[in-house]
Beta-xylanase
Amino acid sequence: ASTLAAAAQQSGRYFGTAVAANKLGDSTYVGILNREFDMVTAENEMKMDATEPNQNQFTFSNGDRIVNHARNQGKRVRGHALAWHSQQPGWMQNLSGTSLRNAMLNHVTQVATYYKGKIYAWDVVNEAFADGTSGARRDSNLQRTGNDWIEAAFRAARAADPGAKLCYNDYNTDNWSHAKTQAVYRMVQDFKSRGVPIDCVGFQAHFNSGNPVPSNYHTTLQNFANLGVDVQVTELDIEGSGSSQAQQFQGVTQACLAVSRCTGITVWGIRDSDSWRASGTPLLFDSYGNKKAAYTAVLNAL
Ligand code: XIL
């Protein structure tokens, strides 16, 4: 195969990228997007602040630009994200208690209903666990509405769009021995045992020298899959360059391919210049749109 999407399809998987609506007029960007990827995630346009800037006033125009582009090109869409402590609209940041809980559930319901039938998988809840060794939930206004806010969000999403896979998505959950990984694992295990609707776990996979691809990555993905959920690499980028960067991208790709329920990989941007990172070269295409060594390593590993 000569593209990432075609190579991934050989094993029934997808290869996706984050897309920014304001880059859909950039012909180099769109050329690579259309050629290489068969799954799309809106980088910001479907988040809470973008879709509900004022309470109960929903705007989907930028999300729609991305969803329509993807679907017109025969690509699928990962929805990102229905409930998150970050990128909340100002009005939501100022709510608490029952009014916040109800506003969150209304948001999940309205957004998932609007996009019903067009989303392969939703990141229903993003980044709800704390970093470090506690294994605790992250403190946030949503968490302070009660520990059951996550399952409430998943139940609302299922009711709104029964056809979408429902994912929990987080970062720093790649190393099996880390407390945060174990804590998410126990939540998913608990949800499965109690019938809370959850279908998948997303691993953001933002790696750098201080947080490298762990050698037990395959173990982590397999152990989650063994709970009866799909797993996906959802926001992959790896700081570095040249062959060392390429090797790490290859390792992530091989880890996914070794797990039958790892259904696909998404990179968080197309060219290095599209990355959310302030500096560095963490993606598969250079700033001119040329394929990097990391691209070839991924293509060959798929
Ligand atoms: C980032 C976007 O790439 C940036 O453009 C934005 O300013 C901040 O958010 N984890 C996530 C993504 O789940 O939504 C974040 O995206 C990166 C970290």
